[in-house]
Specification:
The complex is a heterodimer of chains A (310) and B (254).
Chain A lengths: L2 H22 L2 H26 L8 H16 L5 H23 L4 H21 L9 E2 L5 E2 L2 E2 L3 H24 L1 H11 L1 H7 L3 H27 L1 E2 L6 H14 L5 H20 L3 H15 L3 H9 L4
Antiparallel strand pairs in A: 1-4, 2-3
Helix pairs in contact in A: 1-2, 2-6, 2-9, 2-10, 2-11, 3-4, 3-5, 3-9, 4-5, 4-9, 6-9, 7-8, 7-9, 10-11, 10-13, 11-12
Chain B lengths: L4 E10 L2 E11 L4 E5 L6 H9 L6 E6 L2 E2 L5 H6 L2 E4 L11 H12 L15 H13 L15 H13 L5 E5 L7 H15 L7 E5 L3 H7 L2 E6 L2 E6 L1 H5 L2 H12 L1
Helix pairs in contact in B: 3-4, 3-5
Classes of the chains: A mainly alpha (310), B alpha/beta (254).
């Protein structure tokens, strides 16, 4: 199956899904698909810095939190315009990424992991301390968000909106990594010394990627809040950051669509296994160990080997 | 005439070891200036200081009379100082062509590498990168992952990247190291062609152990021992210098 056919099929499946869940009388699965799209956006954003930049951020859930609280705080003051929520999330997410990125990008490797983790936890505890906005317990959003005539409280509308964001970010991301920018990012990941000797200052490219990634993941946070009508610090725990890393690695690093597949598979596995046993984490762990051992390039790597060399 | 590259009294110590001790070096425009000496003489440290990778404890570096001592590697590279490393530094998991493309992108000064069209579909960029590979004779390996190239071809690729953008100064750290006899000869021949580039080749600082390469290419030779310059002059004068012979013989007898 060639590339174009695969993309068309994926698009078709995404388009027909609402009809299918209607026909089956299972609206739950539409909400579940929205959830996948939301986490796919966050994973795709992470893949930009993790896959292409080689920067293991263990603090990306902070951006989900920024997005979610942008929705939550505005909504609690009666502002239900999704455009306002999104613009706030984009701005705050980008500024937070720039501020923390300047510090974190002075380091690489384990130190970078620790610093992003630390910043993420700082934001987590900041959210916990926001008593006016639910503190530890979080807060329920009583009013659904609206985008012009669109009511995002409607599951089907939100599904389309999430899908549109995902498609837009995928297109933007693909464009970016194919451009000179992406080539420089990959060069710096593999041989920073050579890049400096050529006259590049790779930190700038990494910071740009980190800021863009943060802004994208913040939108995912908005959509998460729209989908759950609830906001809490748990959205930005470090475990959530770890899950995002697992999604990217599981699907296949530095591919962008691998991150989407990783998000879908991980969430589907969680869903399926949690229905079987309360010890589902045990089975999930085993699956991850197998995939990591069989293919260094994640699930996409599995597909590529079975199809033979391209 | 102002030397193209000048080192004035540069020193660098690592703990108790004085790696480079008050070194003076003048490299004239278009000159191939070899730096030789026994192991541990401080040659690679000196090259690192010239390139901006190693901070000197004392002394100054000038490029065409402009003081560059405080500038980092990237800034010096943008001023026209290119280099190869003792251990070949290329981007292993990109193709040879993509490596050359990176060098071309680096040479497109002032341009912000933003969205734009896909790099692999940019005819200007591709043509310039192909030309860079052709200049060192590895255009046939354009689509091979750089890490899978033969060692000699990797060295050629590194040189190709350094030559993009016509640098003023080329710093070469043992360009024939680890190559077979044929590859070594090919590299010497290639450097000779670079030296005689129409319109003037770059000035070269050549740190090299292979004395055949040194005598085949160098206009002048600086000899270092224990961090100091013990001789500097044209190849014939250096070859017969008693201090140089002592330094090398002493090394061989140890």
């Amino acid at each position: 199956m060639d590339r174009r056919a695969t993309w068309l099929l994926a698009l078709l499946a995404a388009g027909l899904l609402p009809l299918a869940t209607d026909a089956l009388g299972q609206p739950y699965y539409l909400a579940f698909a929205t959830r996948i799209a939301v986490f796919a956006i966050a994973a795709l954003a992470l893949d930009l810095v993790l896959g292409y930049g080689g920067l293991v951020s263990l603090g990306h859930a902070a951006f989900l939190g920024i997005g979610a609280y942008s929705v939550g705080i505005w909504s609690s003051h009666g502002v239900t315009s999704a455009a306002v929520h999104w613009a706030t999330a984009l701005a705050v997410g980008a500024c937070y990424a720039a501020a923390t990125g300047i510090v974190a990008l002075r380091t690489t490797g384990v130190a970078f992991i620790m610093i992003t983790l630390a910043f993420g936890q700082m934001l987590f505890f900041l959210a916990v301390s926001l008593k006016a906005y639910g503190g530890d317990d979080g807060m329920t959003l009583w009013q659904g968000a609206r985008l012009g005539p669109l009511d995002l409280a409607d599951d089907r509308t939100l599904y389309w909106v999430a899908l549109a964001w995902l498609a837009a970010f995928l297109a933007l991301g693909r464009r970016l990594v194919a451009a000179r920018f992406g080539l420089v990012l990959r060069g710096a990941k593999s041989n920073e010394r050579r890049m400096r000797a050529l006259g590049f200052t790779p930190t700038r490219h990494r910071l740009a990627a980190y800021v863009l990634s943060g802004a994208m993941a913040s939108i995912a946070g908005c959509l998460l809040a729209h989908a759950t009508d609830f906001v809490s610090p748990s959205y930005m725990g470090w475990q959530r950051s770890g899950e995002l890393v697992v999604m990217v690695v599981l699907g296949g690093l530095a591919t962008l669509h691998g991150a989407i597949i990783g998000a879908a598979v991980l969430l589907a596995l969680e869903e399926a296994l949690a229905g079987l046993t309360v010890h589902w984490m045990l089975i999930l762990g085993a699956v991850l160990v197998v995939v990591a051992n069989v293919s260094r390039r994640g699930l996409l790597g599995l597909g590529a080997t079975s199809r033979g060399p391209r | 005439m102002t030397p193209r590259l000048r080192a004035r009294g540069v020193s660098r110590r690592f703990g108790a070891l004085v790696a480079v001790d008050g070194v003076e070096l003048d490299v004239m425009s278009g000159e191939v200036h070899a730096v030789i000496g026994p192991n541990g003489a401080g040659k690679s440290t000196l090259l690192g200081i010239l390139a901006g990778e190693v901070r000197p404890d004392a002394g100054e570096i000038f490029l065409d009379g402009q003081r560059v001592t405080g500038l980092d590697t990237a800034r010096r590279a943008r001023l026209g100082m290119a280099r190869s490393f003792q251990v070949t530094a290329i981007v292993q998991d990109l193709t040879a062509l993509q490596n050359a493309m990176l060098a071309v992108i680096a040479a497109e000064r002032g341009r912000i590498p933003g969205l734009g069209r896909p790099a692999m579909a940019d005819p200007t960029l591709l043509a310039a990168a192909r030309e860079a590979l052709r200049a060192v004779g590895i255009e046939g390996a354009a689509d091979v992952a750089a890490g899978s190239l033969a060692h000699g071809a990797q060295r050629q690729l590194e040189l190709a990247m350094a030559l993009v953008g016509r640098p003023r100064v080329l710093l070469l750290d043992e360009p024939t190291a680890g190559t077979g006899p044929d590859e070594g000869r090919a590299m010497i021949e290639l450097l000779r062609r670079v030296k005689t580039t129409p319109g003037g080749g770059p000035s070269m600082v050549l740190v090299e152990h292979d004395l055949d390469a040194v005598f085949a290419l160098a206009d002048r030779i600086t000899v270092m021992a224990q961090g100091r310059v013990i001789a500097c002059g044209p190849p014939e004068a250096v070859r017969t210098d008693p201090l140089v012979r002592a330094a090398y013989l002493g090394d061989a007898h140890r």
